[in-house]
Amino acid sequence: MARRATPEVNAGSMADIAFLLLIFFLVTTTIEKDKGIARQLPPMEEVEPEDVIIKQKNLFVVNVNKSDQLLVEEELMDLKDLRQAAIAFLDNGGAPAGDPLYCSYCKGQRDPASSDNPDKAVISVQNDRLTSYKMYIAVQNELVAAYNFLRDRESQRLYGWKFTEVKKAIDEGSFQGDEEAVQEKLENIQQLFPMKLSEAQPKKQGQ
């Protein structure tokens, strides 16, 4: 009895089909971008900087524990209140009139027990190693928002536009006007409220 021929599957086009599927998924798949924090690092200095002594009243301490709880100036605080507390500290202007550190544009309470001047005010953030990344980002966002609020206020007072809007337009390449002149004004606003965020080394659980 004659043997029957075994039917074969034509796989000649399988490689083409797989290649087309690969292209399809590469084109249609949405890849999420990692969220992060934009920070401009200071330039490297050839000379080793000297230790800077900061008065306690010019230091705004923010601690985040392993349970994502905020301890601001040794008091428990909700995240929603952090921005306003930071604004009050930065805008305090505690140095008295006639003092070289007197802040003429500050609109805070001028409490002598709080920051003397925005240039002297430092915000120190310390996280636990078990602090969630979400909480870490949220705290950073609130503190940066405090600086942006004050910068927007001063840019509107001096130039009639918001610092954040103009800076964003320049960064995106959509700004129309004399960019060089505006950059100089942006730097002036940044000098009025310089961003001085200090991050201490995270503590281990229990420290």
General description of the model:
The protein has 207 residues and is α/β, with parallel strands linked by helices. The chain has a domain at 56-199. 38% of the residues lie in helices and 10% in strands. It has 5 helices and 5 strands, in the order αβββαβαααβ. Strands 3-2-1-4-5 form a 5-stranded mixed sheet, with helices on one face. A hairpin with a 5-residue loop joins strand 1 and strand 2 (70-72). Helix 2 (79-90) crosses helix 3, helix 3 (133-159) packs across helix 5 (179-192) and helix 4 packs across helix 5 (179-192). The protein is elongated and about 110 Å long. The relative contact order is 0.12. The model has no long low-confidence stretch (mean pLDDT 85).
Quick one: overall form? elongated
Q: What structural category characterises the helix and strand content?
A: alpha/beta
β-strand percent reads 5-15%
Please give the radius of gyration in angstroms. Answer: 27 Å
Largest sheet: 5 strands, mixed
Oligomer: single chain
The count of strands amounts to 5
Q: Give the termini separation.
A: 87 Å
Count of DSSP H/I helices: 5
Sheet with the most strands: spatial strand order: 3-2-1-4-5
Residue runs with pLDDT of under 50 for 5 or more positions: none
The percentage helix is 25-40%
Mean pLDDT: 85
Give the topology string: H per helix, E per strand.
Answer: HEEEHEHHHE
